[in-house]
Amino acid sequence: MATNRFSLVLLALTTTSLLGACSADSALMSSDDDDSYAEDVAGSSWDGDDDDDDGDVASDTADGEDESGSISDDGNPGTGAGQLTAGEWRDLDNWDFWSAVLQRNDWAAMESAWDFSTVNRFAVSVEDDGEPVADAVVVLQDAQGSITWEARTDVHGEAELFANLFDTSSIGPYTVTASDGLVSASVADLDPIWEDRVDLELAGTAPNAVLDLMFVIDTTGSMGDELSYLQAELADVLSTVQDGAGQSLELRLSVNFYRDEGDQYVLRSFPFTTDLETSLSQLSAQDASGGGDWPEAVEQALDNAVYEHQWSDSAVSRLMFLVLDAPPHNTAQNRDSIHAAVTDAAAQGIRIIPVAASGIDKSTEFLLRFMDISTGGTYTFLTDDSGIGNSHIEPTVGSYQVEFLNDLLTRLVLESIGQQP
After folding, report:
1. Residue 75 · residue 41 · CB < 8 Å
2. Degrees (nearest 5) of the Cα angle 71, 72, 76?
């Protein structure tokens, strides 16, 4: 069996520092509608509107904090970390729920609106003698031998492949192949039945001990109600991850900002760096302005993030947090641009994790969930529990836990490198 160097990396990580961001003063509890929610979504009574409150912050918050999760300071909250509240929902782990949602007419129409279809999913697992193989290249080919989707396995050896995500040009049966550049393994004659995970045995080698962490942030005027809080939360996440990684894991950071055509700038991007202070300075220097009309230059930000940055060829994890409160301009050209960026992000092993702020509507939620599903990511969203910012739409999801945003994002980073908070 090939030596699993990644396990040595994880042993060397200073777990205690990282777990500090997921401390006991995090406000965690499950949402209310836990058993019946999927049935309601699938049933005829569901109308596509989700106004019920699915989650609340627990009342036993830490000293110096009120029950909303805001740090009190003579009645006026500051902008320190640990105030914004958020939830997470991973459709890839709740596929029956996602499939039920897509059966509704109003949601089915969104597939056409954004030209996505996740029906033909292949869930893949790659192991070496029972140990997960991380960062293996996994490819899906159709009956003609054409590559229809490419991805990289995560730290758990798992990857997601899709046929006909944007069109209906490919036909089966399909073949899944995993490789690490030296050896490969394949399974042929497959149909897209996601319940049957495609298992591959590959004597692969561990990836480089590298974590690529990128933030892509909407800084238009509508983000003004939450941007200063987001800056504090994200700075806390970066500092916590950096402290925990130490010298054993190379942490590469990139912070990027976007607005829209006609604003002071459309893109303000910064390359990957291992200098935390540089990234923190770039983050803190931003303000919210511009915008005007509701849609923003999301497609340009994605294009820049995927194609204009030097992502690591070999890495334990590559995460892109997309923080926004508005959709892209929905034109055919922009949809094609998003499709291309998502396709190449998946091929490079870049997992897109949206952070939906106030202002998101159902159509935008749907697009963001399509993007995270396609790249093996997860969907996160701010909630009203903090009392900060404008109202946040209730997502069409099942039971979830409300967490402080910095804890949630730190947890996701930890999980991406094989650590449990």
Report:
1. no
2. 110
- Distances in Å between the Cα of 322 and the Cα atoms of 40, 180, 303, 354, 395 are 30, 29, 12, 5, 17
Q: For 204-237, what is each residue's pLDDT tens digit?
A: 889 999 999 999 999 988 787 788 888 889 889 9
Separation of alpha carbons 273 and 276, rounded Å: 8
Q: What's the pTM value of the predicted model, to 2 decimals?
A: 0.83
Nearest to 81 by CA among 73, 90, 71: 71
The predicted-structure confidence for 139-171, as pLDDT tens digits, reads as follows 999 999 999 999 999 999 999 999 999 988 889
Residue 40 maps to a domain: no
Assess whether 236 and 302 both reside in one domain. yes
CATH number, domain at 144? 2.60.40.10
Phi, psi angles (nearest 5°) of residue 411: -60, -45
- First and final C-alpha spacing in the chain: 29
Using CA atoms, how far residue 176 sits from 155, 188, 190, in Å, is 19, 6, 8
* Tokens 């997960």 found at: 132
